[in-house]
Specification:
With 179 residues, the chain is mainly α. The chain has helices at 2-6, 15-76, 79-104, 115-135, 164-178. The longest helix is centred in the first third of the chain and has 62 residues, at 15-76. It is flat. The termini are far apart.
Length: 179
C-alpha cells in the first residue's frame, strides 16, 4: 500500500534501449523524407508538363490567329490596286523632286553669276596680292632695348651681323605668316 501512495519506482533508463529507439525513429523519419521527396519530384514534373502544354496551346492559338489575319489581309488586297498605288507614289516622288529642284535654283541677281569665272578671278586677285606682298621690303618690328646693369654687361660689345640670307629668310617667314 505504501507503494501505491508513493508510486511505483521507475525503472532506470537503459542507454542501449534509448539509442535503439532513437535509431528506429530516425530511420522512420528518413523513409518519410524519401517518400515526400519522390512525391514532390513527381508533382514538379506534372506541373512542368502542364505548363509546357499550356505554352504550346497558346503558341498554336497565336499562329492560327496570325494565319487568319494574313488571309483576311490578302483577300482585301488586289494586284491592280497595288500597281495603281505604286504608280501614284512614283508620281508624287517625281513631283517632289521637281519642286526641290525649283527651290534650289538661284534667284535674282545670283542667276547671272558664273561660279567658275568668279573662282578664277578670285585666284588672280590672290596671286596679285601675294606678288605685291613679296615685292615690298620686309618690315621688322622694333626690338626693345633692354638696359642691363653695368655689372652684367660684357666688357666688349658683341657685333651683330645681319646677312642678306637672314633678311630673305625673315621676309619668307613673314610672307608665310601673312597667309
Amino acid at each position: 500500500m505504501f507503494q501505491k501512495l508513493i508510486g511505483k519506482s521507475k525503472p532506470e533508463p537503459n542507454p542501449t534501449a534509448t539509442i535503439e529507439k532513437l535509431t528506429e525513429i530516425l530511420e522512420m523519419l528518413e523513409k518519410r523524407e524519401d517518400y515526400f521527396a519522390k512525391n514532390a519530384a513527381v508533382e514538379v514534373k506534372k506541373i512542368l508538363t502542364l505548363e509546357g502544354a499550356k505554352a504550346t496551346t497558346l503558341t498554336i492559338d497565336a499562329l492560327r490567329t496570325g494565319a487568319a489575319s494574313m488571309k483576311a489581309i490578302s483577300k482585301s488586297m488586289n494586284i491592280n490596286d497595288l500597281d495603281k498605288t505604286m504608280h501614284e507614289i512614283n508620281e508624287q516622288t517625281e513631283s517632289m523632286k521637281q519642286i526641290q529642284e525649283t527651290l534650289s535654283a538661284p534667284v535674282g541677281a545670283s542667276v547671272d553669276f558664273d561660279e567658275d569665272k568668279l573662282e578664277a578671278e578670285l585666284g588672280e586677285l590672290e596671286g596679285a596680292y601675294l606678288q605685291e606682298q613679296l615685292l615690298q621690303p620686309a618690315k621688322f618690328a622694333p626690338v626693345p632695348v633692354i638696359s642691363l646693369p653695368s655689372s652684367m654687361q660684357p666688357a666688349h660689345p658683341i657685333p651683330q651681323k645681319t646677312t642678306a640670307d637672314e633678311i630673305d629668310e625673315l621676309s619668307a617667314l613673314q610672307t608665310e605668316m601673312a597667309l
